[in-house]
Amino acid sequence: MSTSSPAGGWTFLTNHAHVLLALSRDPDSRLRDVAQSVGITERAAQTIVSDLEAAGYLHRERVGRRNHYTINPLAPFRHPIERHRHIGELLELLGAAVDVRS
Fold it and tell me: Domain HTH marR-type: where (predicted)?
């Protein structure tokens, strides 16, 4: 379940950021597909989505048999060094279609 990882085995973004980015690009994605694109297990993706929802970064809504995810672009970063920035800025920088005026 691994995507091509860089030499040294680390990246600048966490799996939480990767999941948030994947859901911002396709808010109707199945977690199975998100997990595959990030290179993690489906269970890990579920845990990350629960973390992100509990922290106010996204909202999960049941639509029929699927979930629809809405990102809160005005949620601040968690670390004190970046706390003055909003998550929508990162998503926009990485090419996600996010309305930062919300």
Answer: 15-63
